[in-house]
Automatic annotation (TrEMBL):
It comes from Platysternon megacephalum. GO terms for cellular component: membrane. It is found in: Membrane. Coiled coil: none annotated. Keywords: Membrane, Transmembrane, Transmembrane helix. The chain crosses the membrane at residues 40-64, 70-89, 101-120, 132-151. The keyword Repeat does not apply. It comes from the Eukaryota. It is a multi-pass membrane protein. Signal peptide: none annotated. Residues 160-180 are annotated as: Disordered. The keyword Hydrolase does not apply. Residues 27-154 form the MARVEL domain. This is CKLF-like MARVEL transmembrane domain-containing protein 6.
Length: 180
């Protein structure tokens, strides 16, 4: 009777386990995926270029830019990983979208401010100038994604209002057809 197989394996364990780490880009539209990839790439390039700066006179702007560019890279990569892996199935979708919107928008504004501060306090070296350009480009990417998410959310709300506001023609609101 015992052929070496565990007795309860057929009833206690699923036969077809999904892979532990599945990467898919289907959860984001093409535009959102491009914006997310641009955010990661541009903020990472801004961070790397600011790390190459050898010396500074007024270093406060450089340090602020360093902190924001690293934080932007880390947070945008983290959100992209959640969207593209099986971690997406474990989080509440509305909370993730809300978190994504606020993180993207706040990081975009802070990156823009950090780029302005760094531009005002830099020593005019070519590496600093290129880092500032990538900082502005990254902030545009973050802000464009934030605006895009806001417009999508607004469109969904308008569609919901149109669908719920048109209750006059539903059968419940029609007069009964009494033929006596």
């Amino acid at each position: 009777m015992d052929n070496g197989d565990p007795v309860y394996i057929r009833t206690t364990e699923p036969q077809n386990k999904p892979p532990a780490c599945v990467c898919t880009f289907a959860r984001l539209s093409r535009l959102r995926l491009l914006l997310k990839a641009a955010q990661v790439l541009l903020s990472f390039l801004a961070f790397i270029l600011e790390e190459i700066v050898e010396s500074c006179i007024l270093c406060g702007g450089l340090y602020f830019f360093e902190f924001i560019s690293f934080s932007a890279t880390f947070l945008s990569l983290l959100i992209l990983i959640v969207y593209c892996t099986s971690a997406y199935e474990k989080v509440e979708k509305d909370r993730l979208r809300t978190l994504d919107f606020w993180v993207t928008t706040v990081v975009g504004v802070l990156f823009f401010v950090a780029s302005i501060v760094f531009a005002a306090t830099n020593d005019k070296s070519s590496v600093e100038t290129v880092a500032i350009v990538f900082g502005f480009l990254a902030s545009i990417g973050f802000l464009a994604d934030g605006i895009h998410m806001f417009m999508e959310k607004r469109k969904v709300k308008e569609n919901k209002l149109e669908n719920t506001g048109n209750t006059q023609n539903t059968p419940e609101n029609q007069p009964l057809n009494n033929q006596s």
